[in-house]
Amino acid sequence: MTQPTGAAPRALPIVLVAAVALIDEDHRVLVATRPARKSMAGLWEFPGGKLEPGETPEACLIRELHEELGIVTRAACLAPLTFASHAYPDFHLLMPLYVCRVWEGEPEPREGQKIRWLRPGALFDLPMPEADKPLLPFLHELL
Question: What is the CATH number of domain 14-142?
Fold first, then answer.
């Protein structure tokens, strides 16, 4: 058996991020802009964030939803839908996408971001990070 020729691909650090599609009673999805201080600032994304050491994706989303949007939910209200695996130049992103239809409070931007409620089809027209784009057909099919 022959081995492949050429240099091995450079190993990238893996970054684990959890994201959630909040879905309202009208079947609209909440998206937010990335804050100015972060990479890819201004692009639209699903709420969420990096997992802290030892943190589950569900615990991360509960924490991030409260920090970013001022809402409260429970792990039982978060249903996994799909995930993204995307190589950026400096890291490889793994991002499970959850769906949430039940929370307490009204989402309000707490980190200087803009938020919008959109129908799934309208998400395709937004400038989004490359890792988020493959998630859109799953949401469109679900709703």
Answer: 3.90.79.10
Write out pLDDT tens, residues 6-35. Answer: 555 678 999 999 999 999 999 999 999 988
Which stretches of 1-143 are assigned E, i.e. beta strand? Answer: 14-22, 29-33, 44-45, 48-50, 78-87, 92-100, 115-118
Q: Which two three-digit tokens encode residue 122?
A: 């309208």
Nearest CA to 61 out of 74, 48, 50 is that of 48
Q: How far apart are CA 139 and CA 62, in angstroms?
A: 20
Q: Which residues of 85-98 are buried (b: 16+ CB within 10 A; e: fewer)?
A: eeeeeeeebbbbbb
Look up tokens 């996408």; give the residue: 97
In 3D space, the residue among 92, 97, 90 whose CA is nearest the CA of residue 133 turns out to be 97
Residue 49 pLDDT:
95
The average pLDDT across 101-123 equals 95
Question: What are the extents of the domains in the chain?
Answer: 14-142
Per-residue model confidence (pLDDT) at position 121: 93
Q: Quick one: how far is CA 125 from the chain centroid?
A: 17
pLDDT exceeds cutoff 90 at 92: yes
